[in-house]
Amino acid sequence: LSPQEHGLNFQRLLDASAYKETFRQDMIRWGEEKRRADPGFFCRAAVEGAVHPVWVVSDTRRLSDVEWFRDIYGDVVQTVRVVATEETRKRRNWVFVTGVDDAESECGLDQGVAFDWVITNDGDELALGEQLEILLQSLRRSL
């Protein structure tokens, strides 16, 4: 929504380029303003028009997002956290930026959420595949 409102190139914001970093703090600030005015703003936008029996809502950022989905959809909500070690993240060219990577938009779910699933993605494709298969089997059983 922010890229649309501000005329940014959405595809370029998805990559790891300097383009994204140029606008990152402004997008965070814009998102904070929207959330203060309406905590469910982004959650409603994520599900608008969805008609499938299973949705994957990626990249929730705050406890209020998780709480919104749980309040609206109850026990059918499954929360999944994907983790990687800091070493792995650095190998993937992640660099900590003060004021960005320590902001609520990046670490708001680091505490206070009991995730249903925790998936480790440290580069071991076999281990990742096994974890995802167990998750998928569980989800299929609940349909």
What does this structure look like?
The protein is mainly alpha-helical and 143 residues long. It folds into two domains: 1-37, no CATH class; 52-142, 3-Layer(aba) Sandwich (Rossmann fold), CATH 3.40.50.300. Helix content is 52%, strand content 6%. It has eight helices and two strands, in the order H-H-H-H-H-E-H-H-E-H. The longest helix has 20 residues, at 18-37. The mean pLDDT is 87. It is found in: Cytoplasm, Cytosol. It is an enzyme of class 2 (transferase). Keywords: ATP-binding, Cholesterol biosynthesis, Cholesterol metabolism, Cytoplasm, Kinase, Lipid biosynthesis, Lipid metabolism, Nucleotide-binding, Steroid biosynthesis, Steroid metabolism, Sterol biosynthesis, Sterol metabolism, Transferase. Its EC number is 2.7.4.2.
Descriptive keywords:
P-loop_NTPase, two-stranded parallel ribbon, nucleotide-binding, 2 domains, globular, sterol biosynthesis, 143 residues, phosphomevalonate kinase activity
Q: How many discrete domains?
A: 2
The major sheet is characterized as: 2 strands, parallel
Classify the helix fraction into a percent range.
40-55%
Output the number of helix runs: 8
Q: What's the pLDDT, averaged over the residues?
A: 87
Oligomer: single chain
Radius of gyration over all CA atoms, rounded? 17 Å
Percent of sequence in beta strands: 5-15%
Poorly predicted ranges (pLDDT <50, ≥5 residues)? none
Q: What is the fold-level CATH name, i.e. the topology of the largest domain?
A: Rossmann fold
Total beta strands: 2
The CATH architecture of the largest domain comes to 3-Layer(aba) Sandwich
End-to-end separation: 31 Å
CATH superfamily of the largest domain: P-loop containing nucleotide triphosphate hydrolases
Structural class determined from secondary elements = mainly alpha
Strand order of the largest sheet: 1-2
Q: Briefly, what CATH class of the largest domain?
A: Alpha Beta
Describe the global form: globular
- Listing every helix as H and every strand as E from the N terminus to the C terminus, the arrangement reads HHHHHEHHEH
